[in-house]
Amino acid sequence: MSFLRTAISSKKISAGFRKGVNTLRHQLEDRIRLSQLSSDSSPIVNDKEIRVVGLRRTGNHAIMNWIRKQQRGEIFYINNALINVNPYRDVYEEQVRIAKKPDISGWRTDNLEKWKKEALGDFSYKDCLVYSYEDQPMEKMCDPAFEKKHDIYFGKSRIRYDLILLRDPFNLFASRLRASRRKNPTAGSIDFMKVKSRHHTLPQLWIDYAKEYLNETNYLSNVKVPVNYNQWVNDSAYRRQLAETLGLEFTDSGVDDVMTNGGGSSFDGTNLQGKATEMSVLERWTHFSDDAEFKALIADKSLRDYCTEIFGTIPGTESLYTSST
Fold first, then answer.
1. Which of 88, 95, 141, 169 suits a disulfide with 136, CB 3.0-4.6 Å?
2. Is the residue at 40 inside a domain?
3. Where in the sequence is the domain holding 92, given as residue range(s)?
4. pTM for the full model?
5. DSSP H or E stretch at residue 309
6. How far, in Å, are 52, 53, 76, 161, 209 from residue 226 at the CA level?
7. Strands, sheet with 75-78, edge to edge from the N-terminal-most edge strand
8. Could you tell me if residue 184 is inside a domain?
9. Which of 198, 213, 199 is nearest to 167 (CA)?
10. Helix, strand or coil for residue 146?
11. CB 307, CB 203: distance < 8 Å
């Protein structure tokens, strides 16, 4: 037993050492590239850059898939990126590790060399670069120190958009509760009731996103485009306007695709593939109307006030409060 503990401890020390060495190597690479960077002479490598921020189960993948299908030309997509790191380098190094372990499931690139070139700053031209952050706190996602490294991490862009996605909290929390309680091997070990912040609960982070959506805060520094998921899923005119705002050629292709990320829909899985607009995504809360955990999540009055300001009254949700008085 003592030998086993020693072996485990040695592995942890070894892993920690490798991580420290990699961090130092990355910092050195960044300093060298920053010293060589010239903002005036750097070529534009991304005609359009779209940063998508949202809480999980806000239709993130559905909306990004729809964007990709409205965009012509060369499109590059980075899903659920880590904050404050070079996303190309992070994906490349992760894919190198995965390639050594064929028994590990999950996404695998079919072009490792391309990711390597992007990681090293040998950027290919893209008509549109789309990348997303999920469940991240605003203040950390928009760190000024990270912004200074933008051009060495992503390359220079002609125009940059910040899409902030918001779904009403009643249906969002219901979807996350359902996802957290079901067993779905394709979703892995994700805890959908946790967010990527030690200082926020899920309702608190939703409120922060609502404040940014309404411009009460202004962390997002690019061309901010608030996206109301409830409207996006139900209103083709709203989607057409969004496409126009982003300079996309509106075809509405992809609106009925069901994305498989995280196991698909929390309620329907991938059963309605090709019929996504038939899913009752605005009635998910009804499945949890008597659930104590759900009621605790929606108890904050400021959360309800922000919800009403952005989405109006969600039909039927009044009963969630009148029954408890």
1. 141
2. yes
3. 18-318
4. 0.86
5. helix 301-311
6. 10, 10, 22, 10, 10
7. 75-78, 128-134, 44-54, 156-166, 223-228
8. yes
9. 213
10. helix
11. no
